[in-house]
Amino acid sequence: MLPINIYLCKMIEDKNETRTSLSELGEFGLIKHLTQNFGIQHKSTIKGVGDDAAVLEIKDKNILVTTDLLVEGVHFDLSYMPLKHLGYKAVVVNVSDIYAMNGIATQITVSIAVSNRFPLEAVEELYEGIHLACKTYGVDLVGGDTTSSTRGLLISITAIGEAKKEDIVYRNTAKPNDLLVVTGDLAAAYLGLQVLEREKRVFEVNPNSQPDLTNYTYLVEKQLKPEARKDMVELLAALDVIPTAMIDISDGLSSEILHICTQSNVGCNLYEEKIPLDPQVISTCEEFDLNSTTIALSGGEDYELLFTISQEDFPKIKGNPHLTVIGHMTDESNGVNLVTRAGQQIKLTAQGWNALLNK
Amino acid sequence: MLPINIYLCKMIEDKNETRTSLSELGEFGLIKHLTQNFGIQHKSTIKGVGDDAAVLEIKDKNILVTTDLLVEGVHFDLSYMPLKHLGYKAVVVNVSDIYAMNGIATQITVSIAVSNRFPLEAVEELYEGIHLACKTYGVDLVGGDTTSSTRGLLISITAIGEAKKEDIVYRNTAKPNDLLVVTGDLAAAYLGLQVLEREKRVFEVNPNSQPDLTNYTYLVEKQLKPEARKDMVELLAALDVIPTAMIDISDGLSSEILHICTQSNVGCNLYEEKIPLDPQVISTCEEFDLNSTTIALSGGEDYELLFTISQEDFPKIKGNPHLTVIGHMTDESNGVNLVTRAGQQIKLTAQGWNALLNK
Questions:
Q1: Both A145 and A262 in a single domain?
Q2: Contact A150 B113 (CB under 8 A)
Q3: Does B355 map to a domain?
Q4: B269, part of any domain
Q5: Are A95 and A137 in contact (CB under 8 A)?
Q6: pLDDT band (50, 70, 90) for residue A349
Q7: Residue B212 contacts by C-beta under 8 Å, 6 or more apart in sequence?
Q8: Can you give the residue range of the structural domain that contains B236?
Q9: Gap between the Cα atoms of B296 and B11, Å rounded
Q10: Torsion sign, CA atoms B5, B11, B13, B15
Q11: Which end of chain B has the lower number of beta carbons within 10 A, N or C?
């Protein structure tokens, strides 16, 4: 596991480190340099980096493809996001989408655009994180593109995965009376970001301050080094449960529930008291005077899996500490509601983090 | 075919056009809005846009994957690149990599990052070009990501293709005595760029000037609306020729020959007098006082295919107007040489356009 170090610009600004200009290697040299130690883990990877395209051979399987674009200043802030963590997280958010289909991620392509403020060592650190994620999740790096940008860093990753046709779980297949289940707990990643942004403001006022993150380790780790729930896909297979619908939680619980309901033409009752929260989430919400339910609904970046199962599968998941039933699906006419601790029904709206409004 | 219109900022700056803020639609609304008319062309596309990942089903075929990242200010200049052309070209450069494997492109994902200087109409125009390219090349748009950028426009495309295992052509399988063949002609795209940049400078001095591009139509079209050589992959199949090695010409002939030679451990003699050039290339090189051979070697962006064939296949391609034999492969010890019109041998170096140095 990566240590959680808060760099606060150290990596970029430390003038004592060795620097190698990216242009010394050239584009092809850079790609080769960065990817030479990646290796190949899948028999299906016939050809990885080094030709016009990667070649994958997969029989009797369906192929899954997903892609994400991460932009400096929009999706991440390098003043508290170490590049190694960023590389790791960029892979995580992509393979998470493959797991959300109940598939297994097998390959990724990674494209980056970097301005010349980044030395080779910075890009290497980014790729260290990408490499670690490849090993952790068992995916092969099979291609990519490296170019310059006029400003900042940008990462585009495409993940490819596979699954048996009958195992793939879509968003649009939830049924009324299905149970709504979430893995792990929610809201920690968003609060981790709030903590880091507070420390950044403190640092900007007093650059000699050292942040004390002892009380926020779980939150900060969920923000800086989230994990995709490959383990939950494996757990569901071991429990012999195929969800009726599934999605990963990238934009916030509210937004993801609405995706499932809209695409499946069903309603939902979500129970506030059932939403799983870590004790650090509860204490930090009190400290920041935030409502933990609002954060769980709208915070985003949890990368937990949200899925529906038919009621007859309930005994298989009952009591499992990783899985929490947080509601049930209904007829579409019921609408999509939060049932509060006080028993009130409140219509859910997509307050999820919106990339286009976040600018 | 798209008309060649030189917009010179018109699209971005024309205040009379209707504007819709991107944030009005939100990210999901925008993706849906932009992709709703794309449709599905391949039986292998089980699920396109709208879930966590696309699902492809392909039996008895190898899968090809390639990706490219295009950055405003590095790869394109919107003052003379209309957005519709840009969208078209972004697809072309990706599917070109699939054809360079002797495969057929089947799906693409498209991710874009846009600053809020772009109204919806601009993004729509970009997607019109993407859509046209999808239809022209018979590929399905199966996913993507849309986000904001702090500055400028960025496009990341991943193309997926398929081919029978025995038909795939790599870069590292050329043999001594193989013939070196190129499709179409070279150097036009680079010269088109020079013409457009000259017109831009004229426009900056006198915004009322109207560029006269009558003498440069072929060059400008090769720059603004290049085509990938799917037709050549089909022609090779019809001629029953499987190249021994193949690559597409994105960075310049010199760089691509060196890729084949380095990866195949062979040498090459390239004959200057054989390099195919359009008459507009020759006349414009004279006008700009440029050496046409240098431009063909280093210009880039031609997106023609460069391949090697065994000598016994020569009768199959002999006299074909689309294919020109420009040299032959040798033992590695011979090195990689340009044989000039005067009979001199000059060692080839990778002077191809380098994305990282171009900044």
A1: no
A2: no
A3: no
A4: yes
A5: yes
A6: confident
A7: none
A8: 179-347
A9: 32
A10: positive
A11: N
Same domain, A16 and A162: yes
Phi-psi region of B319 (alpha: psi -120 to 50; beta: other; left: phi over 0): left
Min CA distance, A50 vs chain B (Å)? Answer: 9
Q: Hey, of B35, B65, B258, which one would you mutate to test binding to chain A, going by the most A CBs within 10 A of its CB?
A: B65
pLDDT value of position B62: 85
Cα–Cα nearest to A328, from A172, A182, A177: A177
Query: Which residue type does A74 have?
Result: V
The pLDDT-based confidence of B50 (bands split at 50, 70, 90) is low
Question: Tokens representing B247?
Answer: 């690559």
Do B109 and B244 lie in a common domain?
A: no
Q: Are residues A35 and A109 in the same domain?
A: yes
Angle at A212 between CA A211 and CA A214, to 5 degrees: 145
Contacts (Cβ under 8 Å, ≥6 apart) of A174? A244, A245, A260, A261, A264, A266, A308, A329
The pair of structure tokens assigned to B304 is 């023609």
Q: Mark which residues 257-286 of B lie under 8 Å from A by CB.
A: 259, 263
pLDDT of residue B226: 95
Integer angstrom CA distances of residue A79 from A8, A10, A72, B203, B268: 5, 8, 11, 41, 50
pLDDT in tens, B122-173: 888 999 999 999 999 999 988 888 888 888 899 999 999 988 888 999 999 9
Q: A167, A200, A234 — which closes off a domain?
A: A167
Binned at pLDDT 50, 70 and 90, residue B346 comes out as very high
Q: Which residues of A touch B67 (CB under 8 A)?
A: 109, 111, 143-145, 156, 158
Judge whether B171 and A51 are in contact, CB under 8 Å: yes
Collapsed DSSP state (helix, strand, coil) of residue A308: strand
**Is the ipTM of this structure higher than 0.90?**
no
Q: Which structure tokens are listed for B25?
A: 């639609």
Between CA A311 and CA A178 the distance in angstroms is 6
Give yes or no for B16 touching A (CB within 8 A): no
B121: confidence class by pLDDT, cuts 50, 70, 90: confident
Residue among B67, B91, B84 at smallest CA distance from B127: B84
pLDDT tier, A147 (very low <50, low <70, confident <90, very high otherwise):
confident
Quick check: B248 contacting A, CB < 8 Å? yes
- B63-94 residues labelled b (16+ CB within 10 A) or e (exposed): bbbbbbbbbbbbbbebbbbbbbbbbbbbbbbb
Cross-chain residue pair B64–A56, CB shorter than 8 Å: yes
First vs last Cα of chain A: how many Å apart?
Answer: 32
Distance CA A97, CA A105 (A): 9
